[in-house]
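Field guide to reading this record: the first block holds the primary sequence, the second block holds the structure written as discrete tokens, and the final block holds curator observations. Each block starts with its own label. This record concerns Protein unc-13 homolog, catalogued under organism Nicotiana tabacum.

BLOCK 1 — SEQUENCE
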Amino acid sequence: MASLFRDRTLGYSRRESTGAAATAAVSTTSSCRYSTSSSSAALSPLPSPFSDLTPSLSASDLRETAYEIFVAACRTSTGKALTYIPTDRSPSPSPSPSNSNSSSSSPSMQRSLTSTAASKMKKALGLRSSSSSGIKRAEGSPGSGGKPKKPVTVGELMRVQMKVSESVDSRIRRALLRIAAGQVGRRIESTVLPLELLQQFKAADFTDQREYDAWQKRNLKMLEAGLLLHPHMPLDKSNTAAQRLRQIIQAALDRPIETGRNNESMQVLRTAVMALANRSSDGSLFESCHWADGFPLNLRLYEILLEACFDVNDEASIIEEVDELMDLIKKTWGILGLNQMLHNICFSWVLFNRYVATGQAENDLLDAADSQLAEVAKDAKTTKDPAYAKILNSTLTAMLGWAEKRLLAYHDTFDAGNIESMPTIVSIGVSAAKILVEDISNEYRRRRKGEVDVARSRIDTYIRSSLRTAFAQLMEKADSSRRASRHQPNPLPVLAILAKDVGELASKENEIFSPILKRWHPFAAGVAVATLHVCYGNELKQFVSGITELTPDAVQVLRAADKLEKDLVQIAVEDSVDSDDGGKAIIREMPPFEAEGAIGNMVKDWIKTRIDRLKEWVDRNLQQEVWNPQANEGGFAPSAVEVLRIIDETLDSFFQLPIPMHPALLPDLMSGLDRCLQYYVSKAKSGCGSRNTYVPTMPALTRCTTATKLWKKKDKTLNTKRNSQVATVNGDNSFGVLQLCVRINTFHRIRTELEVLEKRIITLLRNSESAHVEDFSNGLGKKFEISPAACIEGIQQLSEAVAYRIIFHDLSPVLWDGLYIGEPSSSRIEPFLLELEKNLTIISNTVNERVRTRMVADIMRASFDGFLLVLLAGGPSRAFTLQDSQIIEDDFKSLKDVFWANGDGLPVDVINKYSTTVRDVLPLFRADAESLIERFRRSTLETYGSSAKSRLPLPPTSGQWNPTEPNTLLRVLCYRNDEAASKFLKKTYNLPKKL
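BLOCK 2 — STRUCTURE
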């Protein structure tokens, strides 16, 4: 049909070869709502929101009736005949055949269109100019015969836009002229147009009977639709006129009726029709007939008229002459029972529906619909008419449904090619939702409007819905990528792939969509990332709950999650910086992934597992360790080498873990390793004894039998204790001197290697990707804290144990049982020195040179302590005269010379330091008894005060020898082989006079 008129030179009246051809051409559109031009794709409109009419009315039926109403409404209100006479540029062209019987027309209908016409409506709605104006379409190229071009009137333009043939148009105009002639002075609103048209024509006025029958049926069906199916006022089922009309129509549809002016059947039809068309609620007669103003029939007819504003050759473009055309279309309001508010609704829908039907390519149509919807919003606030509200609700629901279908998954809907349409679609969706909620919803009215922000709520819903959908798609994509790469080396875990994809989605959202949505929701980006955060967090939570150990996949996922969370939080914070709460509400929607915490916990489990294994290894291997220097190359235990190797490997493994927090977790590992080494040292020195193990219990004063027995008893106890814990130098016991020396070497080796390990840790830390400058500012967590001290303490303890064992146990026969027994001159120190030198040689050959000096110094101190013990607590078998003092001093000098070794031994200052006590005590042996007694009295009085004047108390044994200490002075007197000393001791303490 469209091609029929597009190929012609409009402005002519060239009758088709037959009227039937024209009718057939028009009727080809009856099966679809819109015809299709050869230059355009078929339209795909949305279902009408105005509900369905009777299925017996086709699209062409409605279009022809709408055109009839349009032509009828545009006639003059005077009694002049309604006709159409185009104005020619050329002198007095002959009228076209179709208009040869016409004489005048409505001024608005016969107004000529000019190419300079500029549409105010299009400018107001922001619509683009069409590629060809109505003038250009109408003028076209000259037809065959070379007839001149003629300007086009608004009426002719409407005929072309509505795809009505010239023959049909001519017939309509003839009928309207006849009707007007018979009803002079009556307005068209008082006429039931289908009834009057039926009365004007007979079969002879049509090219054939089939065309006439179709025409008659259409008018009868229109009467049925307007008066019975969709009446202006509700129809009582008992209404006799309605029953009669229904019977007439049903009969006429089976067998055409006679429609002459004075025909009886026509009179019956008129009676029934007018009775229904003139009904009122109070029984009075209306001045206007109500046959096309019932909902939704009137809206469907008006919708067709508004669709005529679109260019037949460019279905997405409104014609330039829309202002003039719209003025004429609005003249149908009286017949259709419409007003400006209903026009606004209908026009909004037509613009919107045409945008959808033409493939959503012309955004200016969408913008125009949005602009028109703003007028609808104003109207909705000024009226509460229930019929209007019903129409408004159905129309906006249809528009909102279409918009939300796209906005609830806008990531699937919009891309770089159509993103420009998104703001308008959002605007339409929000506007429709606001009108539906704020102006129609009873629930909303019952609540305070300030409690609901409709726009923000809808955008919030769109964001969350679309991102959940996009996230689900990313999940499927990530899973597919994982399956595709499962045969490749080190394929990425699904959640690691997903984290990367979600990060990219968040960036895209922040850069593309959030700036658009921010117009309605100030924190659109924050809501978006919060939604993604929750979606990913749920998946991550399930993943973490299934992790039992630290695997590369687990670490990859958690690291990716940690990076993703930082990126999402950053976007949320930046988006919410201007909010009243500083973004706290959004952040509360983002429960922390705690990825670092999960990694930390797994690493701590990893650390604990290895520390526990190392401790078990220490227990097992130390039980089997052989502390024999001949069996241990280097003089230290193989177990120490192995434990250090395990620690080194553990550190390597730790820094190879693909985690982002080596500096933070290193202290936990160091603490565990530190405790293991301390445990090793503690277990290695356990049972080895100490200085006090070998120092005998201090005997009581001599010169009495009881004291002698007591000394022997304690000495026996000491020997028993020694034999249970120590062995001889050459024995196989693991606690012998050589075995103790190996342990000392082992502790020293561990301490030395710890320094090397600490330097290596710093290097490993510097090479760690997660290390920062501040991680090197202090040594906390990067050094062994307790094991070096444990090694030093162990070396000290065992060094003293070795020294006092040699002096008080191994050399006891030559020191305790030989030195100064009987006559001092005949039992001097040389035998002891010989044995001492042998032991010093063994020690020097066994102990590491870095601890050798310390051990020799401890042996020297032990030998000095033993020398003094012989002099001051050597038992009743020893007694000294004044003359023996020189022997004692010479022997002590010889003892010191052993350690000095002609300058190759210990430094003089060290020897002097340890020999201070002996040097202070030895002068007492040169003092006479009287002076010793006097010094003893004076010292005792100073210690005990006036209570000591009547009787000198017996000073307790402290073991801390000092020339001014009462017990030391008393012991020198006890071992003095002198009469004065014996008398004093007998008189003061009743001690025996003889030793």
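BLOCK 3 — OBSERVATIONS
Confidence is low (pLDDT under 50) at residues 1-41, 76-105, 138-151, 704-732.
The chain has 42 helices and no strands.
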